[in-house]
Amino acid sequence: MMNNFTSNIHYFRRISQVLAIGLIIIIPFSNLLGIHWVSGTLYSMSFGSLDFSDPSLILQTLVLVKKISLPFFISGIIPLLLAMFLGKVFCSWICPFHLLSEWAYKLIKKIKKISSTANKNPKRNFNLVIFFGLLLFIFLSEVPIFSLVSLPGIISSQVADLVIIRTLGIEIFIIILVLLLEMFSLSRFWCKYACPVGLSLGLTKFKNSLSIVCDSSKCGKCPQRKQNPCKTACSFNLNPKELGIYPVCNNCIECVSVCNENNGALQLTFNLVKKTNIRNKNNNHNKGE
User: Fold this and answer.
1) Are strands 211-214 and 50-53 parallel, antiparallel or unpaired?
2) For 252-270, how does the pLDDT look when each residue is reduced to its tens digit (9 = 90+)?
3) Looking at the domain assignment, is residue 22 inside a domain?
4) Do the beta carbons of residue 214 and residue 138 sit within 8 Å?
5) 229: number of Cβ within 10 Å
6) Residue 255: helix, strand or coil by DSSP?
7) What is the spatial distance between Cα 216 and Cα 278, in angstroms, rounded to a whole number?
8) What's the CA gap between 59 and 64, in Å, rounded?
9) What is the pTM of this model?
């Protein structure tokens, strides 16, 4: 069943992303009609009595005002718990900017006729340094930079403004600028290293989180190994066959889907024992070489 799911992952993920955009559009229209069961933006959203808030905004509030209300704090715990167990699936399955960035990345690759780019996994603590550096900047400058550059929040709030007051703010130019920079750099740097939402969700990664692991003994028998289809499938230019893809990887599982069409060396697992066994097997396999 898992193989069937991962084989069709691209279509399931696109459906999820389109539905998320549909929800962003429907909410302001329903609010205009007096229906408020669902309200808010991707900064903070309510479903009945259940509230969800961007965890980076909660940390920003703590840094700026040194206190926070309990309901607001709890509303940020739910997204963090989801990320703790499933990884940064908000980014790859829900975030509207991530979808725009993926489309732009594929478009510019076709225009430039580039099949793949360098696959070198970043240093493990690089994202942590950036995130806490930004928090330090917020503390010293008292500028709520997370609110100003949270692109999913900006997109959803701009959609609400367009529907309710029929206007767009200058924030829309931030979206366009970042999108253009990502397109022509072919790095997707914003989603990987700069987005406060992704950076905060990446903090929750732990040893039993849902992870992609590679069985190199199977990988060596892959008929397409020289073409590296799993590496090409990653729009973040990560190498899923090596360690160090987290916390940048957001479990879009595109690499696993491609791998399943060959030898199934890449696996998706919660199981720490299985992860350890695969790594030990890989170490033994590498020593044998």
Assistant:
1) unpaired
2) 999 998 888 777 788 888 8
3) yes
4) no
5) 17
6) helix
7) 8
8) 9
9) 0.88
